[in-house]
Amino acid sequence: MDFANVASQLNAGTILPEGIVVATFLGVLIVDLILGRNSSRWIGYLAIAGLFAAIFALYLQWDNSNPMFFAGAFNGDDLSIVFRGIVALSAAVTILMSIRYVEQSGTALAEFIAILLTATLGGMFLSGASELVMIFVSLETLSISSYLLTGYTKRDPRSNEAALKYLLVGAASTAVFLYGVSLLYGLSGGQTELNAIASGIATANLAQSLGVVIALVFVIAGVGFKISAAPFHQWTPDVYEGAPTPVIAFLSVGSKAAGFALAIRLLTTVFPLVAEEWKFVFTALAVLSMILGNVVALAQTSMKRMLAYSSIAQAGFVMIGLIADSQAGYASMVFYLLVYLFMNLCGFTCIILFSLRTGTDQIAEYSGLYQKDPLLTLGLSIALLSLGGIPPLAGFFGKIYLFWAGWQAGLYGLVLLGLVTSVVSIYYYIRVVKMMVVKEPQEMSDAVKNYPEVRWNLPGFRPLQVGLLTTLIATSIAGILSNPIFTLANNSITHTSMLQAKAVDSTQVSAMSAKPTEGL
Questions:
Q1: Cα end-to-end distance, the chain, whole Å
Q2: What are 160-200's pLDDT values in tens digits?
Q3: Which of 322, 452, 473, 501 ranks highest by number of CB atoms within 10 Å?
Q4: Pairwise CA distance, residues 453 & 359, whole Å
Q5: What's the CA gap between 59 and 253, in Å, rounded?
Q6: Does the model's pTM come out above 0.85?
Q7: Residue 170's closest CA among 195, 192, 149, 197?
């Protein structure tokens, strides 16, 4: 076989964005090696520039006529482009909020960014992987990097404990997932590419066999761990509380998005003949996630633990779109994850700022914050209200689209439960806002009374300010300007070949995207 044929089968241009991330990773290490301690001024901006270059490369690949890489191991279709963009963008914002935090913890910034870029690379490959070996390698790249990031602040015993719990539970979930995909390999007659696995199982008439059902359950268990769905959520509260805050910001968005991308690709490609079974399992997961996440969040005293249970509940909401199993459902998932990126990272940026200035993340310590830091109060209030689904913020339109898709698919009970639990979530979000804004000056917490003067010209604070303002503005206007974002999400579904069978009448989708805006 000559070089031209090898190059045409490889189609390496499909993974150009991932190649840019690899080059950025090497650039960070080389600059740090050359400049030493002085490199901390530059490597953060170098990494962000590389990630935005990767996002631009993704934009150039939209509607690629030949999206397959390495003979089908990786699919660079429009669906994967959107999810890879979410992972890369979440990493860029995470780096903005990490620079000051990592330096103040006394650890090396270059190694932190290098590990974060490795996790980003794993998440991007996982979002488009369509072959079992590629899926497993990508999943482990993301997972191992996440364990390292969780325990990165080695002097903090809570970080070490969180990393150990994450590692043990993660290793168990990986083993379960790997056993599930090994069953798929055997049942399909030794195939590893997802389409070939589906064809092999259908040819052998094994679609309704016990082995396929067991493989389905094991695969869902592995995916459930990655998206923090109950009852696979046990790691989430402890890891969120103990890990460095920028790390959990990335895990809550980038890792979750990659997990949902993997779920869509596996379920629609390999398990279409057992759709009723996986819909039933995910319905149970969604119900558990929405109830447990929102109810347990009511009792939390730590802001990070509260957002951990909020993340579990948000996974339950997104699963409504997955269970709908329609074009509208998948488009609503993509839309919600896009706006969730901004509102969740806005909230974590505010938490980092508050912890840098006060050294605590207890909810009670936010009392009276408006008197000392109006911008931080505004940012955190907008983020929390958006997560709760208060109009006209981005989270409201995200939930409207998800519930609308679920209602179209006949998931009436699930949608009603989502509405009820959303109302419950508003209580614990507004509780924090009320504490920051309504408290009288004499009711200020000790942390706020001793709050330092707000200065953005201190080393490392300017990137935090940029991250806060960017995510705050995006969260505020993404809801009102939701139609372009939803058009992007909808096009990513309609232009993806494996989901074209899920297409619904275009007038329904148009009505769905226009209705909330008309309500304004």
A1: 61
A2: 999 999 999 999 999 999 999 999 999 988 888 999 999 99
A3: 322
A4: 15
A5: 20
A6: yes
A7: 149
